[in-house]
Amino acid sequence: MSEQKRLFFGIELPRESRQSIIQWRAETFAAEAGRPVAAENLHLTLAFLGEISEERSLMLQHSAGRIRQPAFTLTLDDAGHWPRSGVVWLGPKRAPRGLLQLAELLRSQAARSGCPQSTLPFHPHVTLLRNASQPVALPPRNFSWPFRVSRFALYHSSYSQGRTRYSEVAHWPLEQP
Ligand code: 2AM
To answer: Which domains are assigned to the chain?
Structure first.
């Protein structure tokens, strides 16, 4: 069997939003609140696949390529803290229908291809801090980062020399109205 890789489908944030978010994060959260996710790693996961073979990855890429979904605007205007997973996140107050449909399709394709999906409801989020297990003071919700989502991608997550890296394996466009 071929080498297994840790893969996930996700959405990249535009560079300007990432820069603005990390500046805001530095001004907003104390250093001891948690470990900041590197700017280049800020993303929104649509479907986590786990460690999978090249064969399964190619099968999922084929299914992803058949998806016809419209582009949508995603606004990051909410923040929260999940103490159990130690995650401080940004997300949308109202998830756009296009985002939910896209995640649902990818998650059901993944489940049908043997990548078990969490039974918890999909909660779209961008992880800002990890290892945040102590109570965190959340900022007032007076921020908003809107951006257009016109593609989604498959990413390979690798860990070496103490760093997590996400590299794009393939990407697909969403339809323009
Ligand atoms: P997170 O940001 O909430 O930690 C790559 O690991 C991406 O897949 C991360 O964004 C992570 O979400 C997400 N993910 C979802 N389920 C996961 C799991 N069981 N293990 C690791 N990452 C998972």
So the answer is: 5-173 (3.90.1140.10)
